[in-house]
């Protein structure tokens, strides 16, 4: 966790933390997914998302305002690719438990939809946004590793935020919004990319992250950013 706080782009540490703390929650989440008709249909087809999501040519042809166009704009603005997250996970996979084909596909799908979660939930890639999104993700796919990262991340930001910044309320808002929304992992991702973004959020029951947006504005007014300051915070993870 100290390494992740020192560099929030060190994605490999996320996999280590989740493996250490999640116990058998992955298996429980998988079997809950597999018990539903939507999950069963997806398991029959097992679509592999990275090459589809990284082919921006077909997505750019979608109308303005669609989930797909918002996704491409987000990925290009942030300099991201679906394959990049695959590469980070592969650094760790040799040390992780081996799963059967269906579970492996399910784990990959959780990984490959992370940036789509950003687009749908409205959380940016700043440190507060990432922590709030993980709280959202926890409610969608419970696991102690995920909620631990979210909580410690927010607690660390609190120490350097101005008075009145509702950092922990962002954590709880993300958790509530994720619980109220339909499971994104169960959606037909290709069909979802064609939907208007606002309509997709309404259909899925994804509420606006109001407190998060207000908090970002307040931080900016005080000359702060929600990004973690590595040298100031690297030694504070355990205390947080």
**Alpha-carbon distance between the two ends:** 11 Å
In DSSP terms (H or I, runs of 4 or more residues), the helix count works out at 17
From the spread of the alpha carbons, the general shape counts as: globular
Share of helical residues: 55-70%
Beta strand % = under 5%
Main beta sheet: strand number and arrangement? none
Number of DSSP strand runs: 0
Assembly classification: single chain
Q: How much is the average pLDDT? A: 89
Structural class: mainly alpha
Poorly predicted runs are 228-240
Rg of Cα set: 18 Å
The sequence of SSEs as H and E is HHHHHHHHHHHHHHHHH
Descriptive account of the structure:
The chain is an all-alpha fold. The C terminus is likely disordered. 67% of the residues lie in helices and 0% in strands. The longest helix is centred in the middle third of the chain and has 15 residues.
